[in-house]
Write a structure and sequence with these properties.
By secondary structure, this protein is α/β, with parallel strands linked by helices. About 30% of the residues lie in helices and about 25% in strands. It contains eight helices and twelve strands. Strand 1, helix 2 and strand 2 form a beta-alpha-beta unit. It is globular and about 50 Å long.
Length: about 280
């Protein structure tokens, strides 16, 4: 899916793969433990062997972290054109009986080119991590710490079944974490970017679920007509939701030159991140 998203980007915006000199792939469902799927994609997409490439394992805030890394690579003169890809197949990790998560998550991918010439200028970031909540959204088995499936399951405090070998999400804890982290992040973003809330023209946040987004919007006192929600069409595609939302808004002409747009992701890790972009054209 990441490869197809990149090819669509190349066709739609006239990008030549030979001009890409760095490839970032955000995924928690890579093709292999090794090599990095970014290396496989470099070859498949015809990107020069002189380009750097690596995967990074992060979920719902992964797009924002990728934009931060890409901006840093360009600003430092390490790369001129960074291809940022996000791709996830969370449905492979969800137990067939887990109706709650199966009704929320969708598989998806997105592609973005970060360079010194684009449709938007990337502003200052706010990033955060709280690993004390790592077990709130987790697949326990399959990696090096617990490689073999256990077949074990238990019931959490909310009565939800937790399968060791499949994705587990403590919905209540994630909800509380979001309501604690996101409003503070919004205030910090405004401060770092020297903006007031009235200066922001649109908000594109990670599409976690309808109830969480509506609650976040109300707690942060954000205008409903400036707040993107489109879960009906895509579901929660994890690291791809923000880029999919940004593209959706561009195609619907909700964004125009001179507008300031706040992007935000939050979730697995636990982690969160946000940035304000300025639409230039």
């Amino acid at each position: 899916m990441a490869g197809q998203a990149a090819l669509q980007l190349f066709r739609e915006y006239g990008v030549n793969p030979s001009d890409v000199d760095f490839l970032l792939l955000c995924t928690q469902s890579p093709d292999y433990f090794l090599p990095s799927t970014a290396c496989v994609l470099q070859n498949r997409l015809g990107i020069p062997v002189s380009a750097g490439a690596f995967d990074y394992n992060l979920g719902c805030s992964g797009c924002i972290y990728g934009l931060a890394v890409a901006k840093g690579l360009v600003a430092a003169g390490i790369a001129k054109n960074v291809l940022l890809l996000t791709a996830e197949t969370y449905t492979k990790y969800i137990h067939p009986a887990d109706k709650g998560n199966r009704s929320i998550f969708g598989d998806g991918a997105a592609a973005c080119l970060v360079s010194d010439d684009g449709f938007a200028e990337i502003g200052d970031f706010v990033l955060g991590t709280d690993g004390s909540g790592a077990d709130r959204l987790i697949v326990k088995t399959g990696a090096s710490r617990m490689k073999a499936p256990t077949g074990n399951s238990s019931v959490d405090d909310e009565g939800h079944v937790c399968f060791d070998d499949f994705l587990y999400m403590d919905g209540g804890s994630i909800f509380n974490f979001t309501l604690n982290a996101v409003p503070k992040m919004v205030d910090e973003l405004l401060l770092k970017n020297h903006l007031s809330s009235s200066d922001v023209d649109y908000y594109i946040f990670h599409q976690a679920n309808q109830f969480m987004l509506s609650t976040v919007r109300k707690v942060c006192r954000l205008p409903k007509d400036k707040f993107y929600i489109n879960l009906r069409e895509t579901g929660n595609t994890v690291s791809s939701t923000v880029l999919i939302g940004l593209k959706d808004c561009l195609e619907q002409k909700k964004l125009s030159s001179g507008m300031k747009v706040m992007l935000s992701g939050f979730g697995v890790g636990l982690s969160w991140g946000g940035v304000v972009i300025n639409i230039c054209r």
